[in-house]
Each structure stands twice: as structure tokens, then as C-alpha cells.
Amino acid sequence: MFELRPTRWPLVMAAIMYLVVEFRIFDHIARTERYVQKGLDFFSIPRSFISYLHGRSVYEVFDTGFSYGPYSQYFVFHPAVSFVFGSWLHLFSPWVSYRIFLIGSLLMLAHLSLLMKDCFQKSKYASFAGAYVVFFSIMTYSMLLKGQIHVLCVLGCGYVLWVLQKSVGTSPTPALKRFFIFGVLLSLFSKPLIAVAFPALLLNRIWRRPTLKAIGFYLLISAVLVLVSSSHSSDSIKQLMDFPNSFVGDKDKNWKKYDIFWHWAWMVQETSYIGNSLKTGLRYFSLPALLRVYVFPWMQNSVLFQLFYVPPLLLSFRSEKNRDEILLLVIFAMSSYFLCITAVWEYHYISLQIMIPFLFWLSNRTRDAFEKRCLLVASAFGLLLFLPSTYFFRPYWSSFSDIAGNLFRLSSGFCK
């Protein structure tokens, strides 16, 4: 029987996923992606740096007299994304640049999956399982197809979880602490999901200093890039002062107000922007969106949904006395975030997807029967993320409705 070396499975999976994205094979099971333009979220990155080279802000990617790529979204990331990636990706033609970014994303995910094989250490298929969890899902396909910088958030959160796993029951080495800081920075500079775990990390004596160092590096680099990225803007200070109002009202009219903190809007409840659009197919993949439309239509804002974050916040105070539980507390905090925010796209859930192996590892490690069952149930529910979304049935919904209506009328006739 043909067998691969364990270290080669991630590369094989990455190569397969490249072909899947290149030829859009998963469009047949990911109905939401059928109408998505390839690289839609990517082209704003090189375009933002070109905007800077033309004497404009990195956030002005439209109406600038130049273009890059066939289409683009708003640039809504930290300026570091523009300078680290856009500064050299803009040198290539648009589609070559996109494919370079795609290959780089696949290699980064391959490295993460290679680390995650430790979660399945008792199985000879550990490397395959780690690669499968990372690559083969609709969320991963969606993220790669769009060319989303969310891959850095996934990588950063995955690195943090891996370091915490390696440190359970032992003291982390200096190398692991540096890797932890790197993971935190990857998330902060892309999409700061890791920030919701800061209470647990800061209350833990071992991880307090590395977390503070990561925050310090982030603030220092951000301060430098505020000056660099805003050096062409005459009203940059006014934009910074006006930040709280940047997300109120018409998004299309206010986009020029977006400053370097726009990427933090990923964690803001944009209820004024979402409005009634939730009813058009539930285009935001989140529990609050579902509840707000169908269960609590009377709600005018999403403040109550923040209550989902209260339990992990309170449990964070256990992190000092129970240092070995820090991995589970971080997973709990990041998971609760997806119950709090209303504006979530489907590929965001890959951040939950990578938590499954660590939950499985924790279930094998614990000696408490009840805790073991809870962790296994959580892992099992996590496997639902690998199924096609309910949007798969959307094209057939009208047919289902017609059949149901005819059956109802037929049964009513018999009753008469």
C-alpha cells in the first residue's frame, strides 16, 4: 500500500487544495462561493500600497485614477498588511500576485497542520488528520478563493494554541514564548481574535509577560505606521479623533474616514450597517443574526449578545490558580466571540475549525470522565463545520416550498 512520510501529507493536501481553488471545484458544494469573484478580497492589498506610492492614504483604494486587478474591496486591514505584503506583491501582474499569495497561504497552513499533528500523537494517521482538519472544509476554500488575509489570523491563533498545548504540565521554553509572541502579533495585525483571550492570558503568571510584550510591540509598530501611512493625509489627526463615528450611517459614504484602526471594526457590532439586510438570506453566518431575525425581532441592537462573553471572562480568574487550564480557557474565550458578533462571514469559522484537534487532545489527557465526555461532544459538534452550509439547499428551497404547499392544500381538501 502506498504510504507517504508524515511530514509530506501537509504538502500533498496543500497541492490538492491549490487545484481545488484554481479550478473552483468546491463551487458545486459551496453555493455561496459560486458567485464570488476569485481574489475579491486580495487585490485591495497591492492596491493600497500603490495608493501610498501615489501620495494617498493606504485606505484610499477607489477613485484614485489608477487601478490594480479587475476588481477590489475596501482595504480594511492594519497598515502593516499593506507595507509587508502590498509593497512587493504590487510588482507582479494581478493574477500572478494572487497566485503567489495563494501558494504562500497554503504553505503557511501546511506548517500549521504539521504542528497540529501532535494533537493526534497516538495515531499513525496524525499528520493526515492535522492536514485534513486545516485544509478540507468550505471555510478554508472560501478564505483561499477570496484571497483573504484572515489566513494570518488563523495561523496566529493556531500558533498560540499550539504553544499553550506544548506548555501544559511544564514550563515553556524561551523559544516557545517567542513563538507565542509571534502568534499573538499575527492575529493582532490581521484580525484580532486573540484579543478576546487577553483577560485569561494576562491573569496567568506565566503568560502575562509574553502577552504584554506582544501588545507593546503591536502598539509601537502601529504608532510608527500611523505616521507613515498618514503622512500624505492632511486631516489624519482629525480622522483619528473622529474614529468612533466612522462606523455610523452609510458605510459607502464614510469609507474615507476609515483610519488605521478600521481592522478593529471586525470586533464591532455594526448594527446600523447590518440593519434589515439580515433578512436577505442571513448573509451573516452567526447565531446572533439568526436569533435577531427569527427569535428576537424586537431587538434594536446587539448589546445583549455580549453576555455570551461573560462566562469566559469570569472563568479567566481561574487561570492563575489552574495554569494547566489556560489552553481550554483561551479556546472558550475565542469560541464565545462568535456568539457575540453579528457580522461574520463563513470563512471566519475556520478559526473555530482549528480548535477541534486541541479539544480532542484535551479529552485524551483528562482523567475526569464528565470533562472527557464534554470535550468529546464539543469536538463532535465541531465536525459539523466540515459539512456544506445550509446555503447548499438554497437553490432548491422554492421547489421544497411548492411541494409543501401542495401537500398542505391536498391534506386540507381531505379534511373537508
- Uncertain runs with pLDDT below 50, 5 residues or more? 243-260, 265-285, 396-416
The first-to-last residue Cα distance is 66 Å
Beta strand count? 0
Percent of residues in beta strands: under 5%
Structural class: mainly alpha
Listing every helix as H and every strand as E from the N terminus to the C terminus, the arrangement reads HHHHHHHHHHHHHHHHHHHH
**Average pLDDT reading:** 77
Radius of gyration from CA coordinates:
23 Å
Helix fraction, binned, reads 55-70%
Sum up the overall morphology in one term: globular
Total of DSSP H or I helical runs spanning 4+ residues = 20
> What kind of sheet is the major sheet?
none
Tally of structural domains:
1
Entry summary:
The protein is an all-alpha fold and 416 residues long. 56% of the residues lie in helices and 0% in strands.
What do these coordinates show?
The protein has helices at residues 9-22, 44-53, 79-89, 94-116, 126-135, 138-146, 150-166, 174-190, 198-202, 205-229, 236-241, 251-254, 271-274, 287-294, 310-315, 326-340, 350-353, 356-365, 369-382, 397-415. It is an all-alpha fold. It has one domain (6-233, 243-396).
